[in-house]
Automatic annotation (TrEMBL):
The gene is lon. It comes from Lachnospira intestinalis. One of its GO terms (molecular function) is serine-type endopeptidase activity. This is Lon protease. It is found in: Cytoplasm. Induction: By heat shock. Its EC number is 3.4.21.53. InterPro entries: AAA+_ATPase (IPR003593), ATPase_AAA_core (IPR003959), Lon_bac (IPR027543), Lon_bac/euk-typ (IPR004815), Lon_lid (IPR054594), Lon_proteolytic (IPR008269), Lon_Prtase (IPR027065), Lon_prtase_N (IPR003111). ATP-dependent serine protease that mediates the selective degradation of mutant and abnormal proteins as well as certain short-lived regulatory proteins. Required for cellular homeostasis and for survival from DNA damage and developmental changes induced by stress. Degrades polypeptides processively to yield small peptide fragments that are 5 to 10 amino acids long. Binds to DNA in a double-stranded, site-specific manner. Residues 8-203 form the Lon N-terminal domain.
Length: 784
């Protein structure tokens, strides 16, 4: 045997063996292997591949490798992410590894290669081997029907035993150790024997596996047949006996008899129970049917609670729980009075609208308590799927009723009080329009036959007292708004906040923090200072947090760290003097009136989400090119009001009264600014304020410092009505304003306000800008 020794770059393979004539690709990531490939590509693209004995060895040496490998030629290199290289190779010939060295950051193999061509077999031996291999291959193919027909045809079509064995070693599914053993065999007889052994073993394994599968299948079929027969026998017995032996079916039938519902509803439930009987127990469909029947039986179809008919007792409960809120209390008591007389009457659908923290949600609980109704709450904030309201069809996996029916079922009666909280925060997307789904629920003419997609039976919601809450009606759709009776819950006055704090918030926080009334007392002045200096809101939520903060600090002083009472401090009294010790420095300071009348500065009134506020508008004029400069983060509507104000001022200053030359507006620029520039502002009600400030700046006539105003102005100087008047008047009173100019069309609103709001201020109703200017501008300066 003529052998030749050559040195080649070496790659150690993990878990695979490459044979001569095999075309295969593999990935390499070790630096030594990558360097070896790069070195081979610089020369003749030849490299030697040897398989590791243990694939887990990360840095193999000569002893860690099988000593018989394959000389291959690199066909293609592809660089992949994470420093991985994919190599495509073609096996050339077998070689023996004589030694391994390291050089240039790679492994170098000393390989002995046989240069003599393989000897041809004796024809008789070749035919015997071919016949034996073909027979074994056919038996293997019969035992493995999934074997590739193309490979089988290729194998059986070969006439050389050597080529068949070489092809078999490449194509046959075997482990890399078995393929390595075939590579190490030198004679065809040894290769033939090993190949025959592999074929016989795998054929027997396949036959045994098939026999085991048949036995398992027979047993499963037998059990399935017995199960079906048992179920059929069960149905036959039920038909013969006329009764259901199953305890669950009996419970359902008994529940139907006791159910307070119409005859058609009971008949529907009985049909569902019959359908449930014939379903296979444990199946998915049976579970869905069981859940559906249980839901129908839990529904309060005709079950009602008895409402409280005592008007005086109901009024007392409402007064105890909430201070003020006259409109809401009157509306509830009116409904109760009508029901007492007629013994019927559709439940009203009320919508309480107001700023956060004004008690909209808590009044609903008090109403339920006053009327002796079951109370359920549904939070609609962020709901965007129509199925959340109407439910899912039973055909869907995990189907369930909508929130309305779920709450209805939880109440247990058909006449509960159902609170739809945050109705202005529902939204719509591709899953449906949630607001439209609520239209049927909140329509007293339709909700007596509300159909949920899951229940599929008409449900009477006409006896439900719906109360919805919202912060802003501008986001509620008009059709939905039309179905509700709107009751505005406006901001609390300072006096109302004081009463609420004394009667409700302080006792609540004392109890929550484990204090007795004699341990911690609040003076009225302390609560007033807390309202004015530490909160700025329409409701009382922040006020309650400040009271809770005082209570927590009081607990630290009244008790030691181990929970024992501090004998040195027996009680604490909170006054306006020591309030800073508990709450720190004052957070808010009211904007009081200016001490003197000024030119171009006018006090307006604004409505915000946390109540009313005063809005100081400043105007300056300067030499320029007739520009109108607007600053203070004004919205589009407010910017339009400013342009209307400028046009009106130009139209009235050309007369004898103000004597302003028209060239003045071409040679001067007007800058209008609203302080607190970081806060966005918008709305038309600052129109009269802007007009007055502009006219004052242009003419140099001062404006009364103790006058505030609100109203929208038109191009011809008419004053239009505005909203949020109660909050605006409260803000003016807090700032110490003596006179407030209000649109004439808001007179009816002012007449409804208590003396507590309007007292101490002169309310002047105006319909034109001329009247505004007469009251706002300082007399004696208008002829200058």
């Amino acid at each position: 045997m003529e052998m030749k020794n050559i040195n080649l770059p070496l790659i150690a393979l993990r878990g695979m063996t490459v044979l001569p004539d095999m075309v295969i690709h593999f990935d390499i990531s070790r630096k030594k292997s990558i360097h070896a490939v790069e070195k081979a590509m610089e020369k003749d693209q030849k490299i030697f591949l040897a398989t590791q004995v243990d694939p887990e060895v990360s840095d193999p040496e000569y002893e860690d490798l099988y000593h018989v490998g394959t000389l291959v030629k690199i066909k293609q290199l592809i660089k992949l992410p994470n420093s991985v290289v994919r190599v495509l190779v073609e096996g050339v010939k077998k070689g023996t590894l004589e030694g391994v060295t390291q050089a240039d950051g790679m492994l170098v193999a000393e390989v002995a290669v046989n240069e003599q061509p393989p000897q041809e077999l004796d024809p008789t031996l070749n035919k015997a081997m071919l016949t034996g291999l073909r027979e074994l291959i056919r038996q293997y193919a019969l035992a493995n029907p999934r074997m590739s027909r193309d490979i089988l045809k290729q194998w059986l079509g070969m006439n050389s035993a050597r080529k068949l064995l070489e092809r078999f070693t490449i194509d046959y599914p075997m482990e890399y150790r078995e393929r390595q053993h075939m590579l190490e065999l030198d004679s065809l007889e040894e290769m033939y024997e090993y190949a025959g052994k592999l074929l016989i073993e795998d054929t027997n394994v396949s036959r045994i596996k098939e026999e085991l599968s048949e036995k398992v299948k027979e047993k499963v079929d037998k059990h399935q047949k017995e199960y079906i027969l048992r179920e059929q026998l069960k149905v036959l017995n039920e038909e013969l006996d006329g009764e259901d032996d199953g305890s669950e079916i009996e419970e359902f039938c008994a529940a139907v008899k006791e159910l307070e519902a119409a005859a058609e509803i009971k008949e529907k439930i009985r049909k569902e129970i019959k359908r449930y009987k014939i379903l296979s127990q444990g199946s998915a469909e049976a579970n869905v049917e069981r859940g559906y029947i249980e839901t129908l039986l839990e529904m309060p179809w005709d079950k009602m609670s008895e409402d409280n008919r005592d008007l005086d007792a109901a009024a007392q409960v409402l007064d105890e729980d909430h201070y003020g809120m006259k409109k809401i209390k009157e509306r509830i008591l009116e409904s109760l009075a009508v029901r007492n007389i007629t013994s019927k009457g559709d439940a009203p659908i009320l919508c309480l609208v107001g700023p956060p923290g004004t008690g909209k949600t808590s009044i609903a609980r008090s109403v339920a308590k006053a009327l002796n109704k079951k109370y359920v709450r549904i939070c609609l904030g962020g709901v965007r799927d129509e199925a959340e309201i109407r439910g899912h069809r039973k055909t869907y996996v995990g189907a369930m009723p909508g929130r309305i029916i779920t709450a209805f079922k939880a109440a247990g009666v058909k006449n509960p009080l159902m609170l739809l909280d945050e109705i202005d925060k529902i939204s719509s997307d591709y899953k449906g329009d949630t607001a439209s789904a609520l239209l049927e629920v909140l329509d007293s003419e339709q909700n007596s036959h509300f159909v949920d997609h899951y229940i599929e039976l008409p449900t009477d919601l006409s006896q439900v007292l719906f109360i919805a809450t919202a912060n802003d009606l501008s986001t509620v759709s008009r059709p939905l708004l039309d179905r509700m009776e709107i009751i505005e819950v406006s901001s609390y006055t300072k006096n109302e906040k004081l009463h609420i704090a004394k009667e409700h918030l302080v006792p609540k926080q004392l109890e929550k923090n484990g204090l007795m009334a004699k341990q911690l007392k609040f003076s009225d002045k302390a609560l007033e200072s807390m309202i004015d200096g530490y909160t700025r809101e329409a409701g009382v939520r922040s006020l309650e947090r400040e009271i809770a903060k005082v209570c927590r600090k009081a607990v630290r002083q009244l008790y030691h760290g181990n929970g024992e009472l501090n004998e040195e401090v027996k009680s604490i009294r909170i006054t306006d003097k020591n309030l800073k010790d508990f709450l720190g420095k004052v957070k808010f300071k009211p904007e009081n009136i200016h001490k003197k009348n000024e030119v171009g500065i006018v006090r307006g009134l604004a409505w915000t989400s946390v109540g009313g506020d005063t809005l100081e508008i400043e105007v300056n004029t300067m030499p320029g090119k007739g520009e109108l400069i607007l600053t203070g983060q004004m919205g589009d509507v407010m910017q339009e009001s400013a342009r209307i104000a400028l046009t009106y001022v130009r139209s009235i200053t050309s007369g004898r009264k103000y004597k302003v030359e028209q060239e003045y507006f071409d040679t001067h620029s007007i800058h209008l600014h609203i302080p607190e520039g970081a806060v966005p502002k918008d709305g038309p009600s600052a129109g009269v304020t802007m007009t007055t400030a502009m006219l004052s700046a242009v003419t140099g006539i001062p404006v009364h410092a103790d006058v505030a105003m609100t109203g929208e102005v038109t191009l011809r100087g008419r004053v239009l009505p505005i909203g949020g008047l109660k909050e605006k008047l409260l803000a003016a009173k807090t700032a110490g304003m003596k006179k407030v100019l209000v649109p004439s069309e808001n007179r009816s609103d002012v007449e409804e306000f208590d003396e507590e709001i309007t007292g101490g201020m002169e309310i002047v109703f105006v319909s034109e800008m001329k009247q505004v200017l007469e009251h706002a501008l300082v007399p004696g300066n208008q002829d200058k």
